[in-house]
Amino acid sequence: MRSVHFQAGFFVAILRYIKYNGAMKKFLTIPAAFLILGCTLSAGCAKNYSFYTNIPDGGYEITDSHFTLGGTAGGYSATEPEIEEIDTTGYTSKSKSYYSMLSPAELVVSADFSADGAESRFNEFTAVVGATLDNIDKCLSHAVENSDITKFNNAQAGEEIEIRRITYEVLSEAYAVYKLTEGYYNPALYYNVRAYYFGDKQVYPKRVSQLPSDEEVAVYTDLASHFGDIVLRTDGDKYFIKKPDYTVSYANTVYSMKLDLGGIGKGYAVDRVEGLFDEYGYKFGYFNFGASSMLVKSNVQSGAYSLYFASPRATSTESYGYVKIKTRNQKISTSGDNERYYTINGVRYCHVIDPTTGKPVNKGIMSVTIIGGSAGSADALTTAVMAMGREKALQFIESKLTDRKVVFLCE
Predict the structure, then answer these.
(1) What angle do CA 221, 222, 225 make, to 5 degrees?
(2) Which residues pair with 325 in a beta bridge?
(3) In what order do the strands lie in the sheet with 238-242?
(4) Is-contact 47 23, C-beta < 8 A?
(5) Which of 11, 3, 53 is closest to 30 using CA atoms?
(6) pLDDT for residue 325
(7) Cα(282)–Cα(158) distance, rounded to whole angstroms?
(8) What is the pLDDT of residues 296-335, one digit of tens each?
(9) What is the DSSP string of 255-316?
(10) How far is CA 112 from the centre of its chain?
(11) What local confidence, expressed as pLDDT, does residue 313 receive?
(12) If you average pLDDT over residues 350-371, what whole number do you get?
């Protein structure tokens, strides 16, 4: 059986291959927050953890005594789709790596590559995927000089700019999740993220004196709270966004709103790649983007993939125990406080910002994983649930996420 392991640690994918009946079988270990629930043979297992889920009994398997079921949310009503079983005799696997939106991505396809035209079809498919990722990056990345988001960030308060359809679709999804979560997902926390040193360079502070003051954080948080004031509109085949006519001042500098769509952008890309899988007729394989968003089709060996959740506090990549969930033809997204973080005087500061405080989350939730639905919205939703805290998160999952499987892990 092919297994997909997701392990706590750095934000880079480590791939290892072994022989399986003469064919390559891939075990994917991602040292990040992706699908984090379980434990490893390391000092990280010294503590006990609680996990919470809306997955009905029988939908997961606990194999590690360091984890206990802390609570469940009801309301899950989705039904598993019927899957057409296909003879995969003669199928082999091919992979292609990409780098987009400052993150690695990997595509794996299993098919009968001995068939006429199969090789050229795969090459065409991987080229189209690459072009799609490049196009999304050019629209959404704040690191690209002429991207739509860069133009928005550089615009004056109250200014309207024309954007491309991709940007319009992602912003519309971001706005919808912002409203659904009552602001717990907020892509306008741009200055807060950078005030805590989680910009592109990731050079972290070592002393409390280097952290932003409460006054500075409050100013940036006030600005971000106006994300709901953006105005999106269309005019024929043209798309526009108007920046809120609101500014704040700190240390003799005036700030207007800036956005960072990195998380939801990766999920949107996964949704687009799923469409390409279907367009090219591929039913087996997966696409992993940045270890935070993933599409899994069917497993060529066993039908379903086994997803193993590992502890975000573990320090080893050697697996010890798991909570296991089987899935296929689903999109999966995760957020965790171990993806990018630093500690000062024993306090952990991570890249996920609580929009109610403007500071790194500290409400006890270490990671959140959502299975099902669009990957774009799921990327945003995992961030929001992390910021809610366990009780509000359980209520939100039970009332708003009845069509998705959700798991979150607490200290």
Answers:
(1) 85
(2) 307
(3) 160-163, 238-242, 231-235
(4) no
(5) 11
(6) 76
(7) 46
(8) 999 998 888 888 776 677 655 444 345 567 788 999 999 9
(9) EE-----HHHHHHHHHHHHHHHHHHTT--BEEEEETTTEEEE-BBTTTBSEEEEE--TT---
(10) 31
(11) 73
(12) 95
Question: pLDDT, tens digit, for every residue of 180-235?
Answer: 999 999 999 999 999 999 987 778 999 999 999 999 999 999 999 999 999 999 99
Scanning the structure block, which residue is given the tokens 């043209």?
238
Q: Give the SS3 label for residue 401.
A: coil
Position 134, amino acid: D
Do the Cβ atoms of 282 and 125 come closer than 8 Å? yes
Q: What are phi and psi of 330, to 5 degrees?
A: -140, 160
Query: Is the entire prediction scored with pTM above 0.85?
Result: yes
In a 10 Å sphere around its CB, with 0-12 CB exposed, 13-18 middle and 19+ buried, how is residue 91 labelled?
Answer: middle
Handedness of CA 226, 264, 268, 130 (dihedral sign): positive
Q: Which residues of 239-267 are buried (b: 16+ CB within 10 A; e: fewer)?
A: bebbbbeeebebeeeebbbbbbbbbbbbb
C-alpha to C-alpha distance for 301 and 118, rounded to whole angstroms: 20
Does residue 146 surpass a pLDDT of 80?
Answer: yes
Neighbours of 148 (CB within 10 A): 26
Q: Which residue has the higher pLDDT, 31 or 184?
A: 184
Please list, residue by residue across 277-309, b when 16 or more beta carbons sit within 10 angstroms of its beta carbon and e when fewer do: beebebbbbbbbbbbbbbbbbbbbbebbbbbbb
- Residue 81 CB: number of other CB atoms within 10 A? 9
Higher pLDDT, 40 or 155: 155
User: CA-CA distance, 290 to 306, in Å (whole number)?
Assistant: 20
> CA-to-CA distance for 215 and 170, rounded, in angstroms?
32
Integer angstrom CA distances of residue 211 from 173, 218, 373: 32, 13, 37
**β-bridge pairing 92-100 and 341-344:** unpaired
DSSP count for the chain of H helices, then E strands:
8, 25
Residue 198 burial (CB < 10 Å; 0-12/13-18/19+)? Answer: buried
The continuous run of DSSP H or E covering 144 comes out as none
Locate 340 and state its tokens: 């990018």
Rg (CA), the chain: 21
Strand pairing of 330-336 and 365-371? Answer: antiparallel
